[in-house]
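Summary for the steering committee. One of the milestones for this cycle was to obtain a three-dimensional model of the protein with protoporphyrin IX containing FE bound, which we needed before selecting residues for the alanine scan. The sequence and ligand used are listed below.
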Amino acid sequence: MHATKSLPVTGPAGPLAPLRRWPARLDLLQSATGLALGLFMWVHMFFVASILLGKDAMWTVARMFEGYFVFGTAQYWLVSLLVATVALLFVVHAALALRKFPANYRQYRTYRDHLKQMRHEDTTLWYWQVVTGFALFFLASVHLYIMMTRPDTIGPYGSADRVWSDTMWPLYLVLLFAVEFHGGVGLYRVALKWGWFEKGDPLATRRKLRRFKWALTAFFLVLGLATLAAYMKIGIEHAPYYGQPYVPAGVATEVSP
Ligand code: HEM
């Protein structure tokens, strides 16, 4: 008896490698987690910017996330759960992104030489996306950890004290630029990669998308800087009363950081 030999599958250019679907699946997961984080970031910036409308507005947003208006008392674990979910997305996204980082100095040099020769804007954008992504590993982790473990301190005075008296503003300043640049380029690249908004002329679509991306980044940077300045101003004024919670007129003291 002789065993049946399986013949190698061949194509016009020789033997074909077995079809591997995992790299495509992981790419899809990277895009999906990035998209979710990018959309979360937009919403986050608007909620945090509620301070520009006044202390009462920010106090109301913070209490809303704690379920205060549903349960009648602050349920801080709700905020911790939300942060844990975002942190999980962040970790999965970062782990998948590691596949794209240059693995050694030689790969890095090859890429840098290629970048210099090409002088192509999208290639340069990709490089800066890797650099800002790397920075986010550290910067965002600090912020997420504090938000997860101290949700009870989120509020007009609690947040302003953290920004100013706890000296978080330098971290937030760098984090703001890193995340807005990274997110803007990320969403632009996802739109190009999966062919969204593609109509007829791909080059014209690319130009329009790029312009839209820069406009969005500029908008969120201006909003973020104004927001940060507002927290710093309140933080400076509130420094002598560090730790004292904000109490809107006619509300019990115990739920108002
Ligand atoms: C569910 C998760 C998150 C929550 C609950 C949250 C909450 C907050 C709050 C309350 C502030 C105001 C300052 C403070 O209290 O310290 C703030 C500021 C900020 N957060 Fe988050 N955050 C989250 C996730 C993130 C992520 C993932 C990033 C970026 C990767 C980020 C970037 C920033 C930046 C840059 C600021 C400064 C605000 C500004 O410059 O306008 N946050 N966040």
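Key point for the committee: Residues 44, 48, 79, 82-83, 86, 136, 140, 143-144, 147, 154, 159, 162-163, 168, 172, 175-176, 179, 224, 227-228, 231 surround protoporphyrin IX containing FE (CB under 6 Å).
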